[in-house]
């Protein structure tokens, strides 16, 4: 067994008497911690990597949606209300004859990248405010946190709806409305993490050694905050997908005939009893996006948490 094995515990040698010869002998106290052998992946970690692979596949699907779509999503491609399984239109067509595979692929692209944009913008704004509040403390911390509390006290969905209604109904304004109400959660979480890291012994030692505040922030604080920020953001993507689909369902997304999952579900609800596949397929796409995003967030948390 290797002496550099991190799973081994070294104790002082123990002298005992052999039961065979009666002579004194030394027993090595080196033993391996209980659990999985080194190099063997636990089933939970293997499942996490499988989910991460699904997350990557979904991202690639969104990136290449325009290449994979067989038809123009806004132009009629075939007959009206064709059922799934029709040759040339595997998911069927809607009441105008537009191919549902093409519209669903374009809708996945819009929803997925819109959610990533909202989460990234919220993480940048909230991360900057949380880091400043945690590092400087004092009056600046109080000012920034009271400003954050003001946004947290507002009903986020209603504020987003009001912003979109005031600025106009399109995707850009919808993303802006969601981003404005989404950053305070990151500010609170990252501020708490910065405060926790700032009290660690190695940070205190660096401060006592005369290291500048800027160097401490970029060398010790920010690298420690990044894993928490990644986990928080990955767990949030599914929530943004659902909120974006909900606002689109209410008519606050892209105007017709642009493909969007929530809007396509709402526009075709009248056919739920006669041609149910038309509103159900985009709804199932929203479910798939949200489910994979949430599972992916849990997988990222498990993998990063196992390394910390």
Task: Give a verbal description of the structure.
The chain has 308 residues and is mostly helical. It has ten helices and four strands. The strands form two sheets. The protein has a two-stranded antiparallel ribbon. A two-stranded antiparallel sheet has the order 2-3. Strand 2 and strand 3 (24-27) form a beta hairpin. The longest helix is centred in the middle third of the chain and has 37 residues, at 100-136. The protein starts with 7 loop residues before the first strand and ends with a helix.
Summarize the structure.
By secondary structure, the chain is mainly alpha-helical. It has 10 helices and 4 strands; from the N terminus they run E-E-E-E-H-H-H-H-H-H-H-H-H-H. The longest helix has 37 residues.
């Amino acid at each position: 067994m290797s002496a550099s094995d991190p799973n081994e515990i070294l104790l002082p040698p123990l002298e005992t008497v052999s039961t065979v010869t009666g002579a004194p002998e030394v027993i090595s106290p080196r033993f391996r911690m209980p659990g999985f052998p080194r190099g063997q992946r636990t089933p939970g970690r293997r499942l996490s990597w499988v989910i991460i692979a699904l997350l990557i596949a979904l991202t690639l699907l969104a990136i290449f949606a325009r290449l994979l779509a067989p038809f123009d999503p806004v132009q009629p491609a075939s007959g009206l209300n064709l059922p799934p399984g029709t040759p040339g239109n595997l998911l069927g067509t809607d009441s105008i004859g537009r191919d549902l595979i093409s519209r669903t692929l374009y809708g996945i692209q819009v929803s997925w990248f819109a959610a990533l944009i909202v989460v990234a913008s919220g993480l940048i704004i909230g991360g900057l405010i949380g880091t400043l509040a945690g590092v400087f403390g004092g009056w600046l911390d109080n000012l920034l946190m009271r400003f954050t509390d003001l946004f947290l006290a507002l009903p986020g969905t209603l504020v987003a709806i009001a912003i979109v209604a005031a600025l106009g109904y399109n995707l850009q304004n919808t993303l802006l409305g969601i981003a404005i109400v989404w950053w305070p959660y990151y500010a609170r979480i990252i501020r708490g993490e910065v405060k926790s890291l700032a009290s660690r012994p190695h940070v205190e030692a660096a401060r006592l050694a005369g290291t500048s505040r800027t160097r401490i922030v970029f060398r010790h604080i920010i690298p420690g905050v990044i894993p928490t920020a990644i986990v928080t953001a990955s767990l949030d993507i599914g929530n943004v997908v659902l909120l974006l689909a909900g606002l689109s369902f209410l008519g606050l997304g892209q105007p017709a005939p642009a493909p969007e999952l929530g809007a396509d579900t709402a526009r075709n609800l009248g056919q739920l009893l006669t041609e149910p596949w038309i509103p159900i397929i985009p709804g199932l796409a929203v479910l798939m996006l949200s489910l994979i995003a949430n599972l992916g967030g849990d997988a990222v948390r498990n993998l990063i948490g196992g390394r910390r």
